[in-house]
Amino acid sequence: MYKIATEFLTRFVKPSTIYKYGFNWSPMYKRTTAKITEVSDDLHYVKIRLKLNWKNRNYAGSIFGGSMLSATDPIYMIQLIQILGKDYVVWDKAVTAKYKRPGKSTIYGEFIFTEEEIEALKTKLKTKQQVDIIKTMNLVNDKKEVIAEFTKTLYIAKKDYYKQKLAARKAK
After folding, report:
1. What is d(CA 28, CA 13) in angstroms, rounded to the nearest whole number?
2. Residue 129 burial (C-beta neighbours within 10 Å; 0-12, 13-18, 19+)
3. Cβ(56)–Cβ(63) under 8 Å?
4. How far, CA to CA in Å, does 56 sit from each of 53, 104, 143, 150?
5. Whole-model pTM?
6. Element (H, E) at 131
7. Coarse DSSP helix, strand, coil percentages of the chain, rounded to the nearest 5 percent
8. Which tens digit of pLDDT belongs to each residue from 81-125?
């Protein structure tokens, strides 16, 4: 449903606007209590904000770790799907969470892909067909203190290769 809506809306609205408001209005993302506050036009930069409130406050009075993780979980994957386009498949594969200190106030996170990273990834996929990449991001407070660190492993493959791989798996 989201993919169809995105394809339709790109006729009228910039992909970065769809990305931002699509996430913020999505019931799944809304439940994380986070908001996307910035998205660059090329989708290489995304910023989120997660405020401490009654919906995400844990027993100790800080932001629940699950809220932090779920607020960061889909960003890189969908960001990369949008950047790479229809010829590639992208899946979240793994995440490691390291909680450094309690989130007792509003926290922020940035998701960045450089042009060089994207070009290197495309070059690697010309010969390898599928790769795993690792991206690390931090949630920080207003003082830039790290509250949590998340290391994501993303699987990326050429769509044709991925379809062949699935067909071979089904044939077994």
Report:
1. 22
2. middle
3. yes
4. 6, 11, 21, 18
5. 0.89
6. strand 130-140
7. 40, 35, 30
8. 999 999 999 999 999 999 999 999 999 999 999 999 999 999 999
